[in-house]
Amino acid sequence: MKRDVKAIVKEMTLEEKAGMCSGKDFWHLKSVERLGIPEVMVSDGPHGLRKQADEADHLGLNDSIKAVCFPTACATACSFDRDLLEEMGERLGEECQAENVSVILGPAVNIKRSPLCGRNFEYFSEDPYLASQMAAAQIKGVQSKHVGTSIKHFAANNQEHRRMSCSSEIDERTFREIYLGAFETAIKEAKPDTVMCSYNKINGEFASENYRLLTEILRDDWGFEGYVMSDWGAVNERVKGLKAGLDLEMPGSGGCTDKEIVEAVKNGDLDEAVLNTAVERILNIIFKFTDNRQEAVFNREEDHKLAAKIAAESMVLLKNEGILPIQPEGKKIAFIGKFAEQPRFQGGGSSHINSFKITGALEAAKEIAEVTYAQGYEVKEDKVDEKLLEEAVQTAKEADVAVIFAGLPDAFESEGYDRTHMRMPECQNLLISEIAKVQKHVVVVLHNGSPVEMPWADDVEGILEAYLCGEAVGQAEVGLLFGQANPCGKLAETVPYKLSDNPSYLHFPGDGKTVEYKEGVFVGYRYYDTKEMPVRYPFGYGLSYTTFEYSDMQVSAEEIKDTETLKVSLKIKNTGNMTGKEIVQLYVADKTGAVSRPVKELKNFVKVELQPQEEKTVEMELDKRSFAWYCTELADWYAATGEYEILAAASSRDIRLRKTVKVISSQNLPLSVSRNTTISELLENPGTAVMIKELAESLVAHMGGSQEAEEGNAAAEAITPEMSMKMMENAPLRSMRSFMGMKEAELDALIQKLQDAVV
């Protein structure tokens, strides 16, 4: 059924059009029955359906329908598995069809700038490439079921503190490479139906009123064709927002802002064509859903099984000194900690799911082993309960293996506020330390949405990072602990030793009015690895119950143009005795020295399953963007001519294979020649290099660089050819007057000649 949306908009009254640009209530868009425009519903996500019926709210305070809570983004990103995320997306899309939900609000791709952000559990990674790949896969899955997604929060929403008013102060290169980077690929490749703008200001202007962000970048540069909606309550000035490209305000304002739009059109402040375009965008997505309604069943039991599968693929084994997998036969096994019985498996706030059922580790273990249990701690407050502590220590002491289920309680991290430190509750740290004194064989299983300090890490034999892994978390944990499944997740973020190691430490969360992103592009591993700083666990790290060997790395060419694609292949062999999956990470290291860059950046990855002793060849591709950085002078992506290292790695700190390739740039950096342009800048430009080379040699001679360093020749020893060359390279053109006696008119003529030669 082909809809003539433009014709429908022509039939609408001004008031009806204005009304389409804001919600009817918290979750519904308005209908226009006389024109066949139906009312549709949107619902919170992004890792489960939070569909509310009556008393609606945005922060999860009131109940929603019983649904399935899949693992949160902090966990699923660790799967490094595009296919898995697409499968989860498909299931979410089916649930939305079954519940008549037109758009699910997610995925959330904001960068994990600081471990303290209260909403990090809902975000994928500190790395924009990984975040964009995970988001794109999830979007494709959901939208394959003719249900829309709303990628969020666009953009630079990296903290909860004063999130509705604070301004994120970011330079253009950092903005493009890191904070927009996570959105760009997902939007271009997966084409989400909607984009949700963030609350915050960006360099002083609200995201909801930012024409450059919502129109020039999102639509003109990236080709986005859907509609932009506000985060709930993010609208500051409605008419200004509409002009900037904010199509839909959510939730509804009770007609208040609709009247503002009507009045603005009537008094000439708003071109009605702008309003018409916004309505067309909204209607296109409404009809895309309603004209493709499908019969679907919300099979909660089957979706629970999928949640368990995803959880097992996402958990990360951080430490294993031979204690895992646990062999239950003839062993006394103790499960310690309240999270064993009542796990923390999701975050608080707008994404909080009213879970259909919850499987904790204590329940799941009944089918595998006999375990004793002690609660160990309370979660309502960080207070040592001596009786619980004593009981837990004694239970652990009497066992052969103690598994401690620990982590962050709900109160420690949630939407709406940031953490103030990276520590776990002291009562839990004490519990782990006390048990380690009486029991050598200890495994700690962590439930948290963001990294925690681990003062006890050296005192235990095993650590399993479960993150917030959804309602089937216990089933997945037990499967991994007892070897029914092989851990294969790898960290999507760096775990530093302490908070002050983090690059944003001195500037997060700002003074409440502004927050300065002074670390620039050096976010996460880009900072830690470039600085060669010790970390607890590096980005991309994760252990397995088997081992993998990397070999025979090949590249399709040793030299490519930046318009060409480089193919990279290598062999991976499972050298152990258990089936496992390895995540092969491909990093690029820029060796050109053209600009300050991180020592390496993730540019592709592949996850491969291997039987014991099986070997496979994996292939990945790198394109121009894999080598490029954002050049503000070009207002474009630029890969400098020169050498780049291609690194095949098991983590950002575990490089297994490397190859060097040369990239030839099809672009030249713009050069405006002036009296202060240096010789080195002129030598870098192909057009001016030939002309300046002879002049440069004369300049070196005038600086004394041609003198031969004879014994006893103090001048020659003081001014070496190397020193003269460096001085020459850094010398501005105006130095020709001082060192070569060039007249002012001659200098001006030279400058003009050089400018004409620039390419």
TrEMBL record:
Every Fibronectin type III-like domain range: 582-652
InterPro entries cross-referenced by the UniProt entry: Cellulose_deg_GH3, Fn3-like, GH, Glyco_hydro_3_C, Glyco_hydro_3_C_sf, Glyco_hydro_3_N, Glyco_hydro_3_N_sf, Ig-like_fold
Alphabetized GO MF terms: beta-glucosidase activity
Top-rank taxon: Bacteria
GO biological process: carbohydrate metabolic process
Record has Hydrolase as a keyword: yes
Entry keywords, A to Z: Hydrolase
Segments forming a coiled coil: none
PANTHER family: BETA-GLUCOSIDASE
Protein family: Belongs to the glycosyl hydrolase 3 family.
Name of the protein this chain belongs to: Glycosyl hydrolase
Source species: Blautia argi
